[in-house]
């Protein structure tokens, strides 16, 4: 079994390749530059550009799954997804871009079903755990009236790829789900109260608004992020994004910590779920690889699915615990 990694010469792509190597899974490195791909530890290199769909599909053809790590996904994700479908291989990506994730889930299902493969976007440290913990939290109070998915990580270093994606999604603006459909978020959130801390939050286009309403029958789903981080990401216009470092050193990576919260209100009262872990970029690689391998083993039905639709939520989160992740619902 081989797993293709598109964007393997990039920061996140290199971490995905390293995680595959740690698990003893052969990686096929796919990108536009043979020289850059050869700088990444791997056994097989295939050159294919986004404007050559036949070559891209051929690069994926004998692989069990594709992990797409090359963002901004709003700009560059479409050709990779279409090539994976043409090659009839499973697809996951590490996108955190709400609008792109919404579009993939809304449109890719019929083609994925015809190809007999599964498409799961948003397998990163925010979208994956956020969707999984929201499913588990909402189940405690079903039927739910309102769900909040919040990213409560403290400000930290961001790579150039993250900065580019943030510039892309901030320009599009946040959505909320209400009245049976998606619409622009009207803003305004109460602070999130945690043990010993009162966190000011603001609306932000997190993946959860695109994913959670597809499997949780809530009247309203909203997303928020720590207000000071929203301010930081709002400063990433396309020019400023290019000034961010392409790669974060290991010490900087490991100093970071991500924290996703889901709060569900329903007829059964209110439930809160949290999931947190170290090294946001390293854990993104772990999450994406875990998802790709589960698809390769046939653990999900064909179609375009959210993480919680594709995988049993508690089992997936438990698989992350050896990597320093902790989760709970109360």
Automatic annotation (TrEMBL):
<dbReference type="Pfam" id="PF03435">
    <property type="entry name" value="Sacchrp_dh_NADP"/>
</dbReference>
<protein>
    <submittedName>
        <fullName>Putative trans-acting enoyl reductase</fullName>
        <ecNumber>1.3.1.-</ecNumber>
    </submittedName>
</protein>
<feature type="domain" description="Saccharopine dehydrogenase NADP binding">
    <location>
        <begin position="4"/>
        <end position="120"/>
    </location>
</feature>
<dbReference type="InterPro" id="IPR005097">
    <property type="entry name" value="Sacchrp_dh_NADP-bd"/>
</dbReference>
<dbReference type="InterPro" id="IPR036291">
    <property type="entry name" value="NAD(P)-bd_dom_sf"/>
</dbReference>
<dbReference type="GO" id="GO:0016491">
    <property type="term" value="F:oxidoreductase activity"/>
</dbReference>
<keyword id="KW-0560">Oxidoreductase</keyword>
């Amino acid at each position: 079994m081989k797993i293709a990694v598109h964007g393997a010469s990039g920061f996140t792509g290199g971490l995905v390749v390293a995680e595959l190597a740690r698990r003893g899974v052969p990686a096929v490195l796919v990108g536009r530059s043979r020289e850059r791909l050869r700088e990444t530890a791997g056994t097989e290199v295939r050159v294919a550009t986004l404007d050559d769909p036949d070559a891209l599909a051929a690069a994926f053809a004998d692989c069990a799954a594709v992990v797409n790590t090359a963002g901004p996904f709003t700009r560059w994700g479409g050709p990779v997804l279409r090539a994976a479908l043409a090659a009839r291989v499973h697809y996951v990506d590490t996108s955190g871009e709400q609008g792109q994730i919404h579009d993939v889930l809304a449109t890719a299902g019929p083609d994925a079903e015809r190809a007999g493969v599964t498409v799961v976007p948003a397998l990163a440290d925010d979208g994956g755990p956020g969707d999984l913990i929201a499913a588990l939290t909402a189940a405690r109070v079903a039927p739910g009236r309102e769900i909040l998915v919040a990213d409560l990580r403290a400000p930290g270093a961001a790579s150039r790829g993250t900065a580019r994606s943030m510039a892309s999604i901030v320009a599009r603006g946040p959505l909320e789900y209400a009245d049976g459909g998606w619409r622009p978020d009207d803003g305004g959130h109460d602070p999130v109260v945690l043990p010993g801390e009162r966190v000011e939050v603001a609306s932000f286009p997190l993946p959860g608004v695109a994913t959670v309403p597809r499997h949780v029958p809530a009247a309203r789903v909203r997303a928020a992020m720590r207000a000071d981080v929203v301010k930081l990401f709002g400063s990433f216009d396309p020019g400023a994004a290019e000034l961010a470092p392409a790669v974060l050193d290991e010490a900087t990576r490991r100093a970071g910590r991500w924290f996703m919260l889901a709060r569900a209100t329903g007829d059964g009262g209110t439930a809160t779920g949290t999931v947190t872990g170290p090294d946001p970029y390293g854990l993104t690689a772990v999450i994406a690889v875990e998802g790709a391998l589960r698809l390769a083993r046939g653990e999900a039905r064909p179609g375009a699915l959210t993480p919680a639709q594709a995988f049993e939520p508690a089992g997936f989160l438990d698989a992350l615990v050896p990597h320093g992740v902790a989760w709970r619902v109360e």
